[in-house]
Amino acid sequence: MRERTIASHFVRAALRGAQRRDQDIQPLLRAAGIQPALLEEARARVSPEQFGRLIQVIWESLDDEYMGFGELRSKRGTFAMMCHAIIQCRTLDKALTRGSLFYDLFPEAPHIELRRVGERAELVLDHSRLHDPEHFLTESLLVIWHRLGSWLIGQRIRLEEARFTYPEPAHASEYDLLFPCPRRFGAESTGLSFQARYLDMPLLQDERSLKHFLKDSPADLLARPDGGDSLTSQIRRLLGRDCRNWPDLESVAQQLHMSPQTLRRHLREEGPNFQELKDQLRRDLAIYHLGRDELSIQDIAEQLGFSEPSAFHRAFKKWTGLTPGAYRTQQGE
């Protein structure tokens, strides 16, 4: 999953809070290794490492884990103290409840509430106090709490639904990496649903593992793409990194124990078709390799299965708005 890339929309959205606090964003981008010109291209993408660095830099610059989106700052170290407060809890239920109570100690903080309704559990977020027009912090908090909970019990919590009070955004196709589950917009509340059985599971982490966890969190939780068990993620894993020997749709369907017709139908429900999935994986692999100096552009084109470099140039410009050479130059500046 390390080759997954992140749309430039999220970079622009992450910077809105800093701009709201009258922060000069150019040094923030430079510190994260992101060229400002990249933001002018709507189709451009960055690596998870660059995005993670950007989040860290914004936190450090503003001394605010709410990244400028809150009414008041959440000083750096607040998340770590919350983690120390919950790490001794016996079950996930107790940990998430205590974590919610911890943040309720701070005035103007967004309120997160854990609810248990029969066999379903819900994490509901009240984001009404945030100055977050693009819902960046709102979605970030949901992602962080979900991935924190998964880490605490040592297994990924499979989401059943993610819902949002606001309309579906133009970049909704990117949500597969954030919320790999059915998504509902225009809902009555914003939150995540999952099976309540996870709440009764014991915490498998302790103070020692927490120390290692907090080295890069919560930025790492936010920046690390997570396709989970979605069909598109399963197909990406089956395709692998060698684009020259990719299996066809019939072979992939066979490995997933379904008919080609069923696979096509499920893909229609999730979004991209089989060819679009291959193109997205090629795009992400291209960005991954262009960000390193190990391969020439011609070698990358060959590895991605293009018969000639010119075809790779045309495809990459269609994907990102930049030529491979321009992208590599920007990354190296």
UniProtKB/TrEMBL annotation:
GO terms for cellular component: cytosol. Residues 229-330 form the HTH araC/xylS-type domain. GO terms for molecular function: DNA-binding transcription factor activity; transcription cis-regulatory region binding. Gene3D superfamilies: Homeodomain-like. It comes from the Bacteria. Keywords: DNA-binding, Transcription, Transcription regulation. The keyword DNA-binding applies. The keyword Aminoacyl-tRNA synthetase does not apply. SMART domains: HTH_ARAC. This is Transcriptional regulator.
